[in-house]
Amino acid sequence: MVFITRRERFNAAHRLFRADFSDEENLNTFGKCSNPNWHGHNYTLYVTVKGLVNPETGFVINLKDLSQLIESQIIEKLDHRNINLEVDFMQGKLASTENIAIGIWDELEAPVGLLGGKLHCVRVCETENNSVEYFGKIF
Amino acid sequence: MVFITRRERFNAAHRLFRADFSDEENLNTFGKCSNPNWHGHNYTLYVTVKGLVNPETGFVINLKDLSQLIESQIIEKLDHRNINLEVDFMQGKLASTENIAIGIWDELEAPVGLLGGKLHCVRVCETENNSVEYFGKIF
Amino acid sequence: MVFITRRERFNAAHRLFRADFSDEENLNTFGKCSNPNWHGHNYTLYVTVKGLVNPETGFVINLKDLSQLIESQIIEKLDHRNINLEVDFMQGKLASTENIAIGIWDELEAPVGLLGGKLHCVRVCETENNSVEYFGKIF
Amino acid sequence: MVFITRRERFNAAHRLFRADFSDEENLNTFGKCSNPNWHGHNYTLYVTVKGLVNPETGFVINLKDLSQLIESQIIEKLDHRNINLEVDFMQGKLASTENIAIGIWDELEAPVGLLGGKLHCVRVCETENNSVEYFGKIF
Amino acid sequence: MVFITRRERFNAAHRLFRADFSDEENLNTFGKCSNPNWHGHNYTLYVTVKGLVNPETGFVINLKDLSQLIESQIIEKLDHRNINLEVDFMQGKLASTENIAIGIWDELEAPVGLLGGKLHCVRVCETENNSVEYFGKIF
Amino acid sequence: MVFITRRERFNAAHRLFRADFSDEENLNTFGKCSNPNWHGHNYTLYVTVKGLVNPETGFVINLKDLSQLIESQIIEKLDHRNINLEVDFMQGKLASTENIAIGIWDELEAPVGLLGGKLHCVRVCETENNSVEYFGKIF
Fold first, then answer.
1. Which one of B13, C46, C61, F19 is least enclosed by Cβ atoms within 10 Å?
2. First to last CA, chain B
3. Average pLDDT of C107-132?
4. Which domains does chain A have, with CATH numbers?
5. Residues 6 or more apart from D127 whose CB is under 8 A from it?
6. Is it the case that residue E138 has pLDDT exceeding 90?
7. What are the C-alpha distances in Å from A101 to residues A132, C45, C120?
8. F85-111: string of b/e by CB count within 10 Å (b at 16+)?
9. What does the pLDDT look like over D35-60, one tens digit per residue?
10. Of the residues D8, D24, D33, D56, which is catalytic?
């Protein structure tokens, strides 16, 4: 079993808040991330797929295919977008890095399987100091 | 003469657009950066100050003072903010990296002088691939 | 279960040596790291906490709380300090990266639990080439 | 149990292709990586070793010994070399990052044991976007 | 005047050698870079353009145009190529980082002018330790 | 004229203080950098040399020679050392990044000339946030 990781990037706006909270409650809970006028990040996404090495190609899966899959399923939806308003798989969820990672996992798990690999980890870095990893429901 | 550089960071939302353009014209000119729902970046800011080394301290200027100045004059205004809507020194300007760098220069030039240094360069990195440097009106 | 990581940094002096060794023995065992006049590093610390996502906040734990905890319990004790002479939780221990990571784990395990998460990993990078991970006594 | 990681680097040429494929088939399968005139990378190698901390030294293993081992067993064979033509442990294999990682594991597993540690992971980064991890046949 | 920089990357094989030298002379002059079987690098290219900010757009030049220009004029010729054998503007030249930077400058100077900017600097990083800057014949 | 840069690194202890100051005065002026028990950094050093490209080699100067020069003249004196106590060219000076950069320049200027280049810039990075550049007495 070998683990292969592809890095992709997207730049997006978001806001952490609850509609049932007052501005003051949102500020207390989410700090400056609750700014009603939005803020944004250069997100870095690492997608790790595991599998056996195909002796015909030397690949677990073709990274070009994986990159195109992430591009079409994830980056096109997130890049230069407002995560709260415009991303279908984030509707009705708090736009935290945790939920973004879980949302990306749910989008990628099945199509990665169709490529012949098994999704192992989705890592999302919001800043150079903050990141999240999700390994599915196994752990 | 020695040149000393302090790095600071801010995360902000912005949009590139002209109010006198249609959405289609904005898209043609500014691409996906014109998204009306905003997007955002982790901006990295490098401020370079030049001066003689003070023999009493070994410093051009005290980097702690420079850091606090950048924090109070720039970062507090930009971090977790919407550059188009909320930043006083960007009002009425296109929120391009070029204009952000020039705006930061104009905010910092005088107070850096009060610290005893001379502002030499403001560098703003919007992504790992895109950055801008401004050296004032000298060049 | 989601894993969330916060990066913090500290700059410290240390020395690898045993008091029961001669200078020559220390040099043989620890190389130039045994220099009696100390040397130092920019250490990078990654603290990973695991837990379920709180549906009220979208957070495993609030990274602001985690950052403040690491700051008060770890960074204030280590930053701009001499690890051998001044850090309470390193007294009587060899100041290796391994022991620093274990020491940080022991300081953080209980208070991270009080924040509602479970400490998963402490990673300490001494240089861009050398790093250590500790996952507690589980492994 | 503590995990310690050493980073090393090598610059090498390679080509992804099968001798039983036509140029066109190789292009279809391996893309521009199949260029018959070779291309190359700055590979980054991370070797992780696990073990108990030796109370006499504070080390899992001495990183200087690990670095010298990686240098003599791996870097000298790969650095400024053609992976397809010149690296003994890659003969008869497709020069994919997956196979390079497995090949390095097989070269290092026994001698790392002689140093008193247990090889845990070999990570090979081909570019800033593409990397592979191998943990041996355990998984 | 504002300076704007775009980063692009290419992975290529090369060899430092002179056809009029014996293998031994090449080894003495160019070290392991003279390996007749080639080696390679992940090159990083920074292209800096200077100009006035266009008040209609906030741009010195549109970075999308600059990126496409670098892609079509430089990256397509260099990426996954053998610099000695396959790159038209490097024919008859030693494939040193210095000559690569000068060659890229000569390719880009005129078309950057057509975009409305003035080429200021071409920086080529061969490894994280080695890089070259060329500012044209002005200096 | 082409500019070529070599990166090297050293890990050292230092302290910012004046012997004619009380501990309190040192703390007021130099902050936690005045800790009498020392602290330390992973310093990164960038040495830039300018010159014409030698048509015989394609080099401004051979980077291997430059690297060996920096190693023997600078790194051996600074790496794993106490800058205040053990570095000959820093005796009698405040161990600020500014003075370190000037000191390195003075050590390198003549021998770089003997290699056939002209020293252009010494850049010293103390942390990822703080750095200094020195270009000699020209500016």
1. F19
2. 19
3. 98
4. 2-134 (3.30.479.10)
5. D41, E9, E11, E42
6. no
7. 7, 22, 18
8. bbbebbeebbbbbbbbbbbbbebbeee
9. 999 999 999 999 999 999 999 999 99
10. D33
